Amino acid sequence: MYAQSKRLMRYNMQQAQNEKDWNKAIFWARACLTKDSLNFKVRYNLACYLFQINEFKKAQVQFKRLLQMNPQFYEAYYQLAHIYKMQSKYMEARSAWNLFLKQSNNDSVAVFIDPTQYWGSQKSMSHFRKRSRLEIQNLILHHDSIWSKVSLLAVRVVTSINTPDSEIPITILDSSQWNFVRWNALYENEKRMEIPYLYKVRGFSETLQAYRFSDTLIKPEDTMASWNAISNIEIVERFKNQKHQIEVRNKKNNKWISTAPLNLGDENCLHPAIAQVHDTLMLFFSSNRPGGFGSFDIWYSALDTLGKIIYTRNAGPNINTPENEFSPYFDTVCNRLYFSSTGHLGLGGFDIFFSNLNADNNRFFSTAENAGIPINSAQHDLHFKTSINSRYLLLASNRSTPLKSGNCCLDIFMYKIDSVFSKTKDTSSTLKDNYKNIIQQLQINKPLALFFDNNQPYVGTAVSSYTTYYTAYSKQAAVYKNRFLKDTAMYKRINEFFLDSLPAAYLNLIAFKLRIQEALHKGLEIYIGVRAFASPLADKSFNLNLSKRRIESLRMFITDGLPQDKKHLLHINERPFGERDNARVSDSYTDLKNSVYSINAIRERVVYIEQIDLIQ
């Protein structure tokens, strides 16, 4: 009876998983663990279910418990890294990805997959290792950068719009009206169901009222709809036969158009959005149909005036990745496609990205760029929309707010575009008032470090941007480590320097550069105080000159890409010290092991950024 009870519990858990009823699956998984707390697979499933409903802290506890049960279960480090990232714990995420890379080093075949991700597909270990390296290389940049392309003031839509259920913006009808879908949670025979209802909102002020459409305008299986005022084409997404489908209706003759070219086999098509792109009516959508680059990709179809599909194409590798791309939206004002992705590197979860359409070619999109803070957060950010007059932005996010703790459901957020576009206010005094906060954000708690290889930059050659020296230096890891093959402790320290300290310092510097350039572009004068050092291998005059050259490579790095008329706004207080008295670093050419390759010598060849101020 005891064994049958456990078997029945596992069966119920699997059924709930198949139905995507995660709360019920969690209940049965916990019930199973009360009978058998050492069941590794059930605990793994529980961790994934908790992650699925955004219970990150609880999922984190379960993955750590899995590591206690099996320290070789390196997948847990990969999952923990994503959990940390979703909580804005970027340094912990980076450490977890590093641990995953170390633990999975000898495994080239194994495959793992979150059982809750029904749209996912099994991928080779090389995919997860490559992804981890990219996350490590970009995490600090994505955490610290000021990405915003415009100055935005975040305004959370009033609680008359957002509820404990999920809401997402669907279509902006005109300059004064938009609509959204709310999923009302209902329970039938202990099964949780989410029924979508369509609402209309008038205006974009902070005081908003939502008006629910008649129930006949959206059926329980319809999840979203999109309208185009020019062509009278209505696009509806429906969930039928356990898959998402897109249906098109011509509102003039009230006829539904065949969408067979869209809905193929058992694949899903979702998140439809239509727009007039140049002289063609385009339908953008997300699908896991064959011929894509990964799980869900962004696709587009050309429609004729009646709504019939002319052709369907993939949006291409500049937009799509091996991961998921959702919720496309085309902004006709700036010919830009917005979408959400977990494949491009970002702050956490789904981030919103944009790609510009070539003015002469409807089939070419530029490389995707992150939409930046505050549009993106560490949580899921999707369903980006702009108002007709481009004064407001709407999106859906499960980020925490003062009015809502936790990350269970999507809420609608609204952003009002600031007076950054007002030329009459573009004066130096206004700029200093508006951007002084950038300088406050630039203050550093500890010096930023730039590390250099021995004798770099070479005397007698032109100085280049620091990127040149960093790139060459990072490729010398094997040369340095091979000097200490018999010294395990030193070998480990040098290995950690090239794997962690050197790239982390460089990414900190990139983030610093982006912030500095943000201020310089706005006409602010910046003062930076730096100190530069060299190892004692050469004579003092040589080392002093070498320190100056290293400072110059920093200047070139920061000003690279700036307009010529902005470069003079950067002032660097240069303090080249040359060598320091350090008994642990040799100054002998016959002892290169300790004068060039040791960790102590490595840390002597450095430039520190220690101070930053705004010149009034």
Give a verbal description of the structure:
The structure is a single chain. The protein has 616 residues and is of the alpha+beta class. Helices cover 32% and strands 28% of the residues. It has 15 helices and 24 strands. It has helices at 2-18, 22-35, 40-52, 56-69, 75-86, 90-103, 125-144, 428-442, 466-474, 477-481, 488-521, 540-559, 564-567, 592-595, 599-602; strands at residues 152-156, 166-174, 177-188, 191-202, 210-212, 222-228, 233-240, 243-250, 255-257, 269-277, 280-287, 297-303, 309-314, 325-331, 336-341, 351-356, 369-370, 381-386, 392-397, 411-417, 448-451, 525-534, 570-579, 606-615. It has a four-stranded antiparallel beta sheet, with no helix packed on it. The protein has a four-stranded antiparallel beta sheet with strand order 2-3-4-5, with no helix packed on it. The longest helix is centred in the last third of the chain and has 34 residues, at 488-521. 38% of the residues are buried.
Number of E strands: 24
Taking all Cα atoms into account, the compactness measure Rg is 28 Å
Shape: globular
Please give the order of strands in the largest beta sheet. 1-20-19-18
First and last CA, distance: 80 Å
Average per-residue pLDDT, rounded, comes to: 79
Please work out how many helical segments DSSP would assign. 15
Helix coverage percent of residues? 25-40%
The secondary structure category is alpha+beta
Q: What fraction of the residues are assigned to beta strands by DSSP?
A: 25-35%
Biggest beta-sheet profile = 4 strands, antiparallel
Low-confidence stretches: 142-153, 419-435
